[in-house]
């Protein structure tokens, strides 16, 4: 069986460090590994519209931002097909058919959807006096549309952050249901989480559980050097570590979580040779006598050396925006061909391929003749 990757991001803003360690970095490695027959990278604008219906301009503007982030991180249009979700109408069709295979109750149990409903401030019940907006149906159903995205390309591997686990599980269920009810057309995908635990759900600079565009607690890949420094220097650490001499906590301390995610032994020899490893640094912090400012300065150096080449490539790409749109247009054309093939197999399996089925016409003609 072919090994195929599909993954993507919502164009609700520029991409941040969470995207980078959760999925983007891995995609580039996988793309370059030669291990995969195809790599599809999707800008999920239709999904972004499910909770931004009143702000289409935001989505429209951010498509190019996400594409620039992709290319500056090393996604290569010669090796990966980069496309825009809404341009593949086959995905919408598949979503509609898959809706028949999922219950409202199953969707309501999806923990990520539950969390995101709360995060976005949608009213969950019909309580009188609750003035919050209700849940858009499209938003509620987005796990089904994600199943359509993944299965349209027969993806075997989906590199994503931990928040996507329930989505991949739901996709697998839809695949099993479809294949058993109709015919074995669809492929069950596997999730590929980062090996490094700190990367699976990178916290925000404010210490909140997840760095997220919607929470405004992000360091963006395209932030300038000074903005990154300011954000690092104001990061949440250990509230109990008041004096430098106080013993500090490493768990739940965002600066250390970021070091877990980004730092390698070479960074010590380059920027802070007093310590041989992160474990040594952590031990000192736990004992007390090590101030937050020093660690933040080190983290800043670690991040800047990874972000600098991305920032530079972005500057170059920004000079040729028509090229970036061309990449997206060509990618969308290629993606559409693949999705159309799957959709036609799906329709055949579902017995809704009336005009392609000569046998149907012949048998109906015979039936009416006999009557
Ligand atoms: P939004 O707030 O619009 O939902 P987001 O910041 O959550 O945006 P998405 O576009 O929903 O980003 O996520 C795209 C991909 O990046 C997914 O694979 C997701 O798992 C991963 N990802 C996003 N944020 C993080 C994070 N903080 N840590 C690890 N992975 C993340
Ligand atoms: Mg999200």
TrEMBL record:
The yes or no answer to whether the keyword Amino-acid biosynthesis is present is no
According to its UniProt record, this protein's enzyme class is ligase
Q: Show the Pfam families listed in the entry.
A: tRNA-synt_1b
Q: Which PROSITE patterns match?
A: AA_TRNA_LIGASE_I
Naming one, the record's GO cellular component terms include: cytosol
User: What are the EC numbers?
Assistant: 6.1.1.2
Q: Name one GO molecular function term.
A: ATP binding
Q: Which PANTHER family match?
A: TRYPTOPHAN--TRNA LIGASE, MITOCHONDRIAL
* Record family assignment: Belongs to the class-I aminoacyl-tRNA synthetase family.
Protein name listed in UniProt: Tryptophan--tRNA ligase
According to its UniProt entry, this protein's organism is: Candidatus Cryptobacteroides avicola
